[in-house]
Amino acid sequence: MKESPVSKELIPKHIAVIMDGNGRWAESKGMSRSQGHAAGAKSVKKVVQRCIELGVSYLTLYSFSTENWSRPELEIDSLMELLLLQLSKEVPELVKQGVRLMHYGSRDKFSEEVLAALDKASAETAEGKILTIGLALDYSGRSELLLAINKLISDGVAVTQETLEQRLFTAGVPDPDLLIRTAGEFRISNFLLWQIAYSEIYVTEQCWPDFDGEALDAAIVNYANRTRKFGAVK
Predict the structure, then answer these.
(1) Looking at residue 4, what DSSP letter applies?
(2) All domains of the chain in start order, with CATH
(3) Report field, pTM of the whole predicted structure over 0.90
(4) 155 a catalytic residue
(5) Per the residue annotation, which of 20, 138, 175, 177 is the catalytic one?
(6) pLDDT digit string (tens) for 108-134?
(7) Per-residue pLDDT tens digits for 76-100
(8) End-to-end alpha-carbon separation of the chain, Å?
């Protein structure tokens, strides 16, 4: 195992990633967008392994936004097939590694096959204590907040930060310490709008298929060299 790039106490507990650039990466190489997504899946595996080695507790991956449903049907079908393939192939190993999988997002538009695979993966990995991976699928930060507010109204409870957070998709998961975005885009893109209020943001020009354990180390070194003040003065 490669040595940690920073001391243990400086490793972020929760890393969130906007995995951008699969399509651009593929097009630059004369490949199909579907091939780009397949290459991106390999990067996920590399980053997950490095998170385990470093002792990161939570990894949240922006895998498919609600807005992504507007993409060509062929690309969406390819993404769903890739999701099913990766779940069936990787879950047994994740169980051995103590990794827990969770789904953040709506369930309304997925096929029964995809929902069954997600539920099966969640159930089989439920005892994982080493790393919790949140798959943000059909995820929208605005929709998440509206859903939480409507739950508060229907439950008839006072609106506080605590009661709202208890009704988010990420209930019980600490806010991200570090938000990584690949492909050089400086946008939040409707991701974890509540949760990233004080996250440190790291943007890299690398497209997601080129992002690996070494790239993650570079992001963590950058994070470790910052002073987190949370609005206070240090």
Answers:
(1) P
(2) 13-141+175-224 (3.40.1180.10)
(3) yes
(4) no
(5) 20
(6) 999 999 999 999 999 999 999 999 999
(7) 999 999 999 999 999 999 999 999 9
(8) 35
